[in-house]
Specification:
The complex is a heterodimer of chains A (about 160) and B (about 475). Chain A is α+β, with helices and mostly antiparallel strands and about 160 residues long. Chain A has 4 helices and 7 strands, in the order E-H-H-E-E-E-E-H-E-E-H. With about 475 residues, chain B is of the alpha+beta class. The chains are: A alpha+beta (about 160), B alpha+beta (about 475). The interface between A and B is medium-sized, with 20 and 26 residues.
């Protein structure tokens, strides 16, 4: 039954956008950690090797996941991201280690917004946010025209479906 | 705005309440600044400044009172407040979810009542309209807002079903013992003890350190006796405290079902009463701590938009109830929430999932402990047993059930929580699978509902993946 459904993918520039966006945070944090490590942590510990390695180890525990999140995960996230808009519901698929599938019945949607940050703008991308009375969902990295089309489509579907109180 | 003819204001005492709202701290601050002022500026100048401040505060309070208006029309209530920024609201009666009437001690002295009106606007902080009125007028307005049938019809209805539900004092007594508030009582006593120590030493000039010396000098058996004795004494004191607090809080608990409303009232010192529109109740939560499970009692709470968002407000439907009576009570009060379907518990293979993360945590902590001192391995073992117990409880408590209009969820560790959610209130569903769950074909469900708390979610883990199809069917 699932196979007959058609799912769309997000734009492939998503990977670049995510890497650029996350790199900014990553390099700022990296700089802070390195400065802290070499000005406060290491000079204040005894010369013995163990504590030196302990500090470096701790820094690595913070830095490695951040680096993975910046340079590796975007590729996986892009591969996993899928969405489908149907007559009665929207389905979103995402997740790296934990795979999530979110189902939002059309009747629960309250508003649909299109958002665009500075990085997305450079790549002519936009994201669509879906608001319900209980939460917010986001479909990232769509081309401007796709985003406009989806939001227009959804409005039509919602109108056709009528509101359920 | 058609109904602006009969404008009303809050009760005059609202001015006094507003001034004293900050509690004694305000007075203390004022006195402190006053004494500093007297020292630096001299008495006359300080007094005149203080007078100006007092008059200013009084003036603002009076102006606030004067500028807060409301008007009850035939179909809606209009409300306006603010001196510079004027805020106007009009709430249609049919949009009102709960009307809460409370009488604090102040209210009871001045024969007033505080009435809070909530419409289902998600994300708003506190009540939409809050009025202080004379008790009689507050009651009138509540009746009007809740759109009751005319008085004669109401009487007829009342005679037809005089089914006011009350809680037996015996049950309330039991609840006071088994509810977690025993620990609350203990907490308060501990805090009080800290102060007591200071008071004894500083004000009464009693030296408490001598007790410590005498304790050190005593024999081992004597010491153990003292410790056990004090623990038992504190527990008894905590229990006693809890019994008194709960008794006062829920004394005279009444639940009165009407055609489409549920009226709840309780309290001796602070009287509280609120009404729910049955149709607007989106869920029921049933909670049980371990003691309650052992004794077979349960607490029922209500999920209703617009109620339970203020501090200390819990939309309690029934503070204490025997588990076997739950279905009968629900049949009587909210039949649409009676769950007749079959709940599905986690398969046995899911236990590992509940235990896995805890195991990782245990390995890290125990390794660290053993590195510090090998003797700590004993603590590690106790921790392992405790973690296994929590995982087992979590595993045992988790369940999911579906019916065409209601979803049943069961979750929690030490406090077992069961929720019955109206399908219509469910906003979205997320099904997730981590790597281990994928291998054993299990999954977690996250259900997001329309609630006071934006983004309120209920999560159950470790269920069979094919339940997703049922969930899907229910939602669409």
């Amino acid at each position: 039954m699932e196979d007959t459904k058609e799912y769309s993918r997000i734009n492939r520039y998503a990977v670049k956008c995510w890497i650029i966006g996350r790199s900014i945070t990553f390099f700022i944090l990296l700089a802070i950690i390195i400065v802290l490590l070499y000005t406060i942590a290491i000079p204040n510990t005894k010369a013995s090797g163990f504590f030196r390695y302990l500090w470096i180890g701790l820094a690595a525990i913070i830095i490695i996941p951040l680096a993975l999140n910046t340079f590796v995960y975007p590729f996986i996230e892009y591969r996993e991201w899928k969405f489908g808009i149907f007559q009665d519901k929207i389905e979103l698929f995402n997740g790296i280690f934990t795979k999530n599938k979110s189902i939002i019945p059309i009747s629960r949607i309250q508003s649909i917004n299109i958002e665009q940050g500075p990085i997305y703008r450079r790549f002519k991308l936009a994201s669509v946010t879906i608001h319900t009375a209980g939460g917010i969902y986001k479909i990232p990295a769509l081309t401007n025209s796709e985003a406009a089309e989806i939001s227009e489509n959804l409005k039509n579907v919602i109108e056709a479906g009528g509101r359920i109180e | 705005v058609e109904e602006l003819n009969n404008i009303e204001r809050n009760h005059r005492f609202k001015i006094i309440y507003d001034i004293f709202k900050g509690g004694p701290q305000n007075l203390v601050t004022l006195l402190l600044f006053f004494s500093i002022g007297v020292k630096n500026l001299g008495f006359p100048l300080a007094l005149s400044i203080a007078l100006v401040i007092v008059l200013f505060v009084l003036g603002i309070s009076i102006l606030n009172w004067w500028k807060t208006l409301f008007s009850v029309g035939n179909r809606s209530i209009y409300y306006q407040k603010g001196i510079l920024n004027v805020e106007r609201k009009e709430i249609l009666f049919e949009k009102i979810n709960t009307v809460d009437m409370a009488e604090s001690i102040m209210d009871r002295i001045f024969k007033t009542a505080t009435i809070k009106i909530d419409a289902g606007i998600s994300g708003t902080q506190g009540s939409e309209i809050k009025l202080v009125l004379s008790k009689a007028r507050a009651k009138e307005i509540r009746e009007a807002l809740l759109q009751r049938e005319s008085a004669s019809e109401l009487e007829k209805l009342e005679q037809l079903n005089k089914k006011v539900i009350k809680i037996a004092e015996k049950d309330l007594f039991l609840y006071s013992i088994i509810s977690n508030s025993v620990f609350q009582g203990l907490g308060i006593i501990f805090v009080a003890l800290q102060f007591l120590d200071d008071i004894l030493e500083n004000f009464m000039k009693i030296d408490t350190s001598g007790i410590g010396h005498r304790f050190d000098a005593a024999s081992n058996i004597y010491r153990v006796l003292i410790i056990v004795g004090s623990v038992i004494f504190l527990l008894l004191l905590g229990t006693l405290f809890s019994i008194i607090v709960n008794f006062i809080k829920y004394y005279d608990f009444k639940l009165e079902p009407e055609s489409d409303k549920l009226n709840i009232g309780y309290g001796v010192v602070n009287k509280k009463s609120y009404s729910f529109d049955r149709k607007k109740i989106s869920g029921i939560h049933m909670k049980q701590n371990i003691l309650m499970r052992l004794t077979g009692f349960i607490t029922l709470e209500v999920e209703s938009i617009g109620y339970g968002d203020e501090k200390g407000e819990q939309a309690i439907l029934y503070p204490v109830l025997r588990v076997k009576e739950v279905d009968a009570v629900l049949y009587k009060l909210l039949p649409e929430f009676v769950f007749e379907g079959k709940e599905k518990q986690c398969p046995r293979k899911a236990f590992f999932g509940f235990f896995m993360l805890k195991l990782v945590f245990w390995i890290i902590v125990t390794t660290a402990l053993v590195l510090i001192n090998i003797k700590f391995i004993l603590i590690g073992l106790i921790l392992l047993i405790f973690l296994m117990l929590t995982a087992l409880l979590q595993f045992k408590n988790t369940a999911l059930g579906l019916q065409h209009n209601v979803v049943y969820l069961s979750y929690g560790i030490f406090t077992k929580k069961q929720s019955l959610l109206k399908v219509k209130a469910i906003q979205s569903l997320t099904v997730s699978q981590n790597i281990f769950q994928r291998r054993s074909n299990l999954c977690s469900f996250k259900i997001n509902i329309y609630s006071n708390l934006f983004g309120k979610e209920f999560k159950v883990k470790g269920l069979r993946h094919h339940e997703e199809l049922f969930m899907n069917g229910v939602l669409s």
